[in-house]
Each structure stands twice: as structure tokens, then as C-alpha cells.
Design goal:
The chain is about 45% helix and about 20% strand. The chain is elongated.
Length: about 375
């Protein structure tokens, strides 16, 4: 009997120790008095990680501007959300936090902040970077629009945007890589894969835990990654066929690998950034079309009339093709295009030389090749 009591005592001690080790506390604050009596929901994702169908796992009431949740993070660090029953406009979307052992402090005021534990602190540091960057770039963009004749300012803006995006992508990659051993890294990989470089994606997917690989979001990412690797810089172009605005079938191979540098330009009439970029593309074409340069545009339009009208309005004279399937474009899928404008520069033999040339970079690159 004494042995049984001793055994049960040991089990109780171990259970208590485990509970303390994995315990988490979420201390929440809201503007005092404004939300008292409201319910707050601690939510998690379903098995598909669909953030639009969150599952409530606990409920608390706001008292004196505060609420609290307690529990055990037995599955390791995991993505959760906090939502208000009657949220104001600035809190309509649930606030993301990482449930992990420790005390998590969350403030829901004019903006949400989450801190107190290692991953939540790291996430806040990461999130502060794009917020500051986009604020600075928006202010600079307004200056560019107010002084359109200032080409130096425009060039400075484009340079800062390019450099800033690279820094943000590096920060995102570092945050994800640091969490690939838990759900947090896998979640942000699946949500932010379009912002990562090919080599980064290849490395992160190689580290993905086996239990996540069979999820639909990762099988689709693996398929897209395979296409991206097949059309990476240094690879031979993959041929595509489609129709011109006049309904004639043409192929990329009609132009690529024929002794000219060819710029494949993915665009659409409904794409504002594509329209803004068009003067740079037209400038490059005018400068180098007689020096061994060609452009083949692949439109992601879904309506023929809009596509044709835009070609006319913009004064585009280079070859055009489209299957009018919008984002279901076979060519876009084949080349792993996830956003437009998207450009691919082929060398004279049809090998992929550069990707995503924008702004003055198009003419500058061609100058080195053809001048």
C-alpha cells in the first residue's frame, strides 16, 4: 500500500512539473471601461489552417479593461487568435498570437501588440519592419507623384523600394527559418511563400516537418516550387502557345532562342502596377528593338475586349498572347508566376538570364548586353 501511495505521489509530482513547464497565461488589456462585459475568444485553426474558419477553444469576459486565459501548450508553440465579440473597426480581424509556455501580454487598443514570450517578441520585431518601411515608402511615393518630372527622385524611390523589399524578405525568411521546428514556421511559410526567393523556399521546404507535408497547402506549394525550379535563372525557356488578339496561335518559341534577347512580360489590363510600369517597357523597346531585342507579352486578362482596348490605349506594338484564363493562365502556372508585372529575360539562345526586371533596370540591363 505504501508503495502504491509513493508511486501515485511521484506521478502527481511529474504531472505538476509538466504542467508548470508547459503552462501559458495570456494577460489581455483593452481601453478601460469601453469593453467591459464583452466576451473575448481564444481561437485556433482547423486542420486545414484556414484562418477564415477559426475554432473557439476558450472564452473570457472583459473586466476593468482586462481579460485572462490560462492553459497548457502541450503541442509546442502554435498559432492562435484573439477575437472580440463586438469588435470595433480596427479590431475586426482576429489578432494573431503564438501560444507557448510563459506569460503573454496582449494589448488591444488602436493597434494590437503581443509580447512577453520568445516567439511573440520575435514576431513583433519582424512586424515592425514592414510597418515602418511601407510608411516611409508611401510618403516618398506621394513626393514622386507630386513632382513627376523629377527623374532622380523617381530613381531613388525605385532603388529604395527594391532594397527595402529585399531586407523585408530576408527578415521574413529569418523568422520562418528560426521556427521551422514548430507550427509557427510552417504556418508563415505557407502564408508568405510568394515573398520568398527560390533558394529560400527550397531550403525551408527541405526542413518542413513530415506531419505537414501531406497538407494540401504544402502539396500545392511543392508543385509550384517544382515549376519554379524548372524555370529558374540558368534554365532553358519552356515553350508556351496561345492566341494573339486577332485569334492567331503563336508560340514563345517563335521568338525565343532565335538570336535575340527576349523579355517575357506577364501583365494584364486590370493590373494597375503593370500599367504604371508600361512606360519603362516601352522605353526599353524603343531603344533596343533594332539592336537584337524583342518583347513577348503574356496577358492574364479574362476578357478579350478589355485586353484589346488596353493594348490600343497603351500603344503596345510588340507580340501579345493570352488564353484569357486570368489567374488560371497556363503560361503563368508553367512559370510559377504569383504576381504581376512579372518579367523574364532570355538570352539569345533562349536561356533564362534575369527575372523581375522593373523600372530603369530593364534598360540598364539591356545597355550592358546590347550597347
Amino acid at each position: 500500500m505504501k508503495k502504491l501511495i509513493l508511486f501515485l505521489s511521484v506521478i502527481a509530482i511529474l504531472a505538476t512539473s509538466c504542467g508548470q513547464k508547459d503552462a501559458f497565461t495570456i494577460n489581455g488589456t483593452l481601453p478601460n471601461g469601453q469593453y467591459d462585459g464583452q466576451l473575448v475568444f481564444l481561437q485556433t485553426m482547423d486542420s486545414t489552417w484556414n484562418t477564415r474558419t477559426l475554432v473557439t477553444i476558450d472564452t473570457a469576459e472583459v473586466r476593468d479593461g482586462k481579460f485572462i486565459f490560462k492553459g497548457l501548450a502541450l503541442q509546442g508553440p502554435s498559432i492562435h487568435f484573439i477575437a472580440l465579440d463586438q469588435a470595433p473597426d480596427f479590431l475586426q480581424r482576429p489578432t494573431l498570437l503564438v501560444v507557448e509556455p510563459g506569460t503573454i501580454e496582449i494589448s488591444l487598443d488602436t493597434m494590437a501588440t503581443v509580447k512577453g514570450t520568445a516567439i511573440n517578441n520575435a514576431y513583433q520585431v519582424y512586424m515592425a519592419k514592414p510597418q515602418a518601411f511601407y510608411k516611409e515608402m508611401n510618403a516618398m511615393y506621394e513626393q514622386v507623384m507630386a513632382d513627376t518630372a523629377n527623374t532622380e527622385l523617381k530613381k531613388e524611390f525605385e532603388t529604395k523600394v527594391e532594397a527595402g523589399q529585399k531586407e523585408l524578405n530576408t527578415a521574413l525568411y529569418d523568422f520562418i527559418k528560426g521556427n521551422m521546428g514548430n507550427q509557427v514556421g510552417a504556418f508563415f511559410l505557407s502564408m508568405s511563400s510568394y515573398n520568398l526567393e527560390l533558394d529560400q523556399l527550397n531550403g525551408l521546404m527541405a526542413e518542413l516537418k513530415p506531419e505537414y507535408k501531406s497538407m494540401e497547402r504544402f502539396t500545392k506549394l511543392a508543385e509550384r516550387l517544382e515549376r519554379m525550379n524548372a524555370t529558374a535563372v540558368g534554365k532553358q525557356f519552356t515553350d508556351v502557345k496561345s492566341l494573339t488578339p486577332e485569334g492567331k496561335e503563336i508560340a514563345l518559341s517563335d521568338y525565343a532562342g532565335k538570336g535575340k534577347y527576349v523579355l517575357i512580360d506577364f501583365w494584364a489590363s486590370w493590373c494597375g502596377p503593370c500599367i504604371q510600369e508600361m512606360p519603362n517597357v516601352k522605353k526599353a523597346y524603343a531603344q533596343y528593338k533594332d539592336k537584337g531585342f524583342e518583347i513577348v507579352a503574356i496577358s492574364l486578362d479574362g476578357e478579350a475586349d478589355a485586353w484589346k482596348q488596353s493594348i490600343k490605349d497603351l500603344g503596345i506594338t510588340w507580340p501579345q498572347m493570352s488564353d484569357l484564363k486570368a489567374w488560371d493562365s497556363e503560361a503563368a502556372k508553367l512559370y510559377g508566376v504569383s504576381g504581376i508585372p512579372h518579367t523574364i529575360l532570355l538570352d539569345k539562345d533562349g536561356k533564362i538570364l534575369e527575372k523581375n526586371l522593373r523600372g530603369e533596370k530593364i534598360s540598364e540591363t539591356l545597355a550592358k548586353l546590347l550597347d
